[in-house]
Amino acid sequence: KLLQRARRHIEDGRPEHALPIATAVSEELVKAFQSVDDSNGYMSSSIHAAFAILNDIAAFSEEQRKAVVEYCLAAHEKEVYEGWNWHLAVLEIATEHAREDAENKRLRTLLEGEHLTGYEMERGIVLTIRLVERMEGPKAAETCMNAHLHFPKLREAAITKAIERRNFERATILTVEAIEQEQAKDASRNAGPSRQVSNWTLQLLDIALAQGDRASIVTHARALFLFGFNMDRQQLFTLLKGHVPRQDWPSFVDMLTKDIKAKSRFYDHEHLALVLVREERWADAVAGVAERVVH
Questions:
Q1: Helix count (H) and strand count (E) of the chain?
Q2: From CA 57, how far away is CA 21, in angstroms rounded?
Q3: What is the tens place of the pLDDT at every residue in 55-87?
Q4: For labelling alongside 115, which of 28, 213, 244, 275 has CA 20 to 30 A away?
Q5: SS3 state at 177
Q6: What are the C-alpha distances in Å from 193 to residues 29, 203, 232, 260, 293?
């Protein structure tokens, strides 16, 4: 009911009355999280609704914009929402509405602060890039993004931009770098190909498809067919069959089945069955079933 009252104040042209209601509701609910079960999501959704009201207030007038930005910056500095996603959500609101140099300088200090770690740091850089793009233009934002490509989301964004510009060489270099970094991590912990390597390889496949590069399409689709996580192997097999030269297809399938078996002593029988059934190699399929029964 309090948030409904705040919303009516905005509709009636009195946003200055809505601001203290929305902020009081969100702050009191965050305090209540320490001792109240919110498994039904009621309190979380109410805080999201309060923050939506802050955005509407900021859009109402210059005076209210300044008030909302000041509240958000101060709330972060005072750690009002510390320990919850809303700690950065207030900076997201500030990023959307900051306009003056003093606001932007203060905001960037918070977004790039050493107090942010892990996911918060990456999200903070994303907001910084958004702020830089609005205040300094797309080139400055891209420079900022390229300085933080160690964050996967930013590397993905840089690759997407390169593909949109049809700069496939740049997109490929960025993706291969990511794969090499992930492979080094996997090697350091004696692990097999990770899910992230699979995701980046899928990115390489998308680049190859955009270029119409038949050889690269086969290389990346084959790697995903053999080692990819949560891949649509039916679709990958169809893609392979459509890009491997017809005269090379039988030997390609022979090698593919050998590689499936070579992956492990306990190879994926369903993986192998897909190939044999699609190619109607019934004798080989029956032999595979017999081998499975024996083991």
A1: 16, 0
A2: 12
A3: 999 999 999 999 999 999 999 999 999 888 889
A4: 28
A5: helix
A6: 43, 15, 17, 15, 29
